[in-house]
């Protein structure tokens, strides 16, 4: 099986692709497709957040004793992105391309910074401290994602 880093970074790339598709649709004012693609992006990203928050973060915190460190920052950033998701969904409902694209730019910056911290710091730390349990954790994460 892959490492925690490889598995979760792959999910980031998948979510990024869905995000780009929704953005392209909104820019072209193809609102039906934008709505569908944004829903897929939001669902995939929310599922990714839930996998991290319910499986990875608790395992990492239990292994390291760090509950006020990187996982706390990641949870806070997930909340910020969820707020932007709600605003973007509203912009699609109003068919407001300017608002959607402005929010999309904000979200892109948030996601890039967030993903960089996860991929370069948290996931690498998780690989180190959870390496022996990585196959089981990845299995649990896949099962949760498939059930979502």
Question: Features of this protein?
Answer:
single chain; 148 residues; mainly alpha; Four Helix Bundle (Hemerythrin (Met), subunit A); 88% helix; 0% strand
State the major sheet.
none
Report the C-alpha radius of gyration, rounded: 16 Å
| Portion in beta strands | under 5%
- Total helices: the number is 5
Q: What's the number of extended β-strand segments?
A: 0
Layout of helices and strands:
Elements (H helix, E strand, L loop, with lengths): L3 H24 L3 H34 L5 H24 L3 H34 L3 H14 L1
Helix pairs in contact: 1-2, 1-4, 2-3, 2-5, 3-4
Written description of the protein model:
The chain has helices spanning 4-27, 31-64, 70-93, 97-130, 134-147. The radius of gyration is 16 Å and the shape is elongated. Helix 1 (4-27) runs antiparallel to helix 4 (97-130) and helix 2 packs antiparallel against helix 5 (134-147). The chain contains five helices and no strands. The chain has 148 residues and is mainly α. It has one domain: Up-down Bundle (Four Helix Bundle (Hemerythrin (Met), subunit A)). The model has no long low-confidence stretch (mean pLDDT 96).
